[in-house]
Amino acid sequence: MRRMITTAAALALALGAAQGAGADPVKIRAPWVATPASLIPILFAKDGIAKHKGVSYTFEPIFFSSSPTEITALAAGEIEIGTINFSSFPIAVENAGLTDLKIIADETQDGVADYVTFNYLVLKDSPVQKVEDLKGKIVAVNGIGAGVELGLRTYFKRHGLEFQHDYSDVEVPFPNMRAVLMDHKADLVGAGPPFLYDPELVKNARTLFTLKDALNGTELSFWVMRQAFLDKNRAAVVDLLEDTVRAYRWYSDPANHTEAVAILAAFLKQPPERADWAFTKRDFYRDPNGLPNLTMLQSNVDAVHEVGFIKSSLDIAKYADLSLVKEAAARIK
After folding, report:
1. How distant, in Å, are the alpha carbons of 3, 22, 73, 215 from that of 10?
2. Which of 68, 110, 155, 243 has the most other CB atoms within 10 Å of its CB?
3. Nearest to 45 by CA among 234, 308, 250
4. pLDDT over 90 for what percent of the chain?
C-alpha cells in the first residue's frame, strides 16, 4: 500500500511538472510614449536578446500619448506594465487608488551626469529671453500632469508664474511640437530625443531652460506592476527583466552602436545618420542593471507635492520591489 501511494504521488508530481512546463506564456502588455526614451517597441529587435520571450512570457508594446493615460489602463487591467514617471506615480497611488503598485525596474533617467536632459525651447527670434517673459503666453506640453509638464510647472513657480493663471497650456504630441512652435501656435515647446535633434528645430529654436534646471535630475520613466500580478507571475516577470537588462546592455555597448542605431532608425523611419546620437551621452541615461534611482525619485515626488499637484508626498521605498530586477541582472554573465 505504501509503495502504491508513493508511486501515485510521484506520478502526480510528474504530471504537475509537465503541466507547468507546457503552460501558456504569461501575456505582458507594455506601454510606450516616445522612442528611444522608451526602448519598449524595439527592446527585443535584436535576435538572441530575449531568451525567454515566447517561452515563459509574451510581450506586446502599446503606444500611449502620455504616461498619465496609462493609469486608467493599469486600473482596468488593459496593460500589465506601467512605464510611468515621478508625476504619474503619485497620481496612480493617491487619485486612482492603485496602492498595490510596485516599482520593479528603471527605464530612463534625465539629466544624469553629462547625459542629455529634456529641453524647453522658444524660437530664436522670440522676444522671450527669460521665464518671466512667458507670462500671458502659450506653452505646449504633451499632457497635463506628464513628467515634463510638472518639471515646467515647478520651474515656472520658482519664477513667479502660476499654473492656470499666468500662462496657457495646450496639449501637443511630441512629433508635432516643432510645427506648433514654428507656426506660432505656442510660444514655448518641449523636446527630448529624437525630436530635440530635428534639423529644422535646431535651426529655428533655442533652449530657454531644461528639465535638469527644474529638478536637478529626474526619474523620467520606470516600470511598475500591480502586486497581484507579481505574486502570480513572479518567475515570468524575472525572465522578462533578465531579457530587458540584457537588451539595455546590448544597446548601450559601443561595440553594437552601428547595429543598434540601424534598428532605431528603421523604427523611426529615418536614415541612420539622423539617429547616430542614440545610445550615447546625447541620449537619456539607462542604468545597466535596470535599477531606478529611488533617492532621485523621492526628490522628484517631493517637488511635485511642493507645487500642489498631489495632496501629500509618498515614501517611495514602500512602493518599490527591486528584488526581481536584481535577481534578473545577477543571472547575466
Report:
1. 11, 18, 43, 59
2. 110
3. 250
4. 79
3-class DSSP state of 16: helix
For residues 169 and 141, the answer to whether their CB atoms sit within 8 Å is: yes
pLDDT tens-place string over residues 4-58: 444 444 444 443 443 345 689 999 999 998 888 899 999 999 999 999 999 999 9
In whole angstroms, give the CA distance from residue 322 to residue 247. 18
Q: Which three cell numbers stand for residue 273?
A: 545618420
Q: What's the structural domain count of the chain? A: 2
Q: Which of 160, 184, 215 is the last residue of a domain?
A: 215
DSSP track, 293-322:
-HHHHHHHHHHHHHTTSSSS---GGGGB--
Strand 138-141 and strand 168-171: the pairing is parallel
Q: Is the pTM of this model over 0.70?
A: yes
**Are both 240 and 279 inside the same structural domain?**
yes
CATH of the domain at 292: 3.40.190.10
Domain hosting residue 281, numbered range:
26-112+218-331
Q: Give the model confidence (pLDDT) of 146-180 as tens digits.
A: 889 989 999 999 999 999 899 999 999 999 999 99
Last residue of a domain, one of 215, 242, 267: 215
16-to-23, 135, 233 alpha-carbon distances in Å? 10, 67, 17
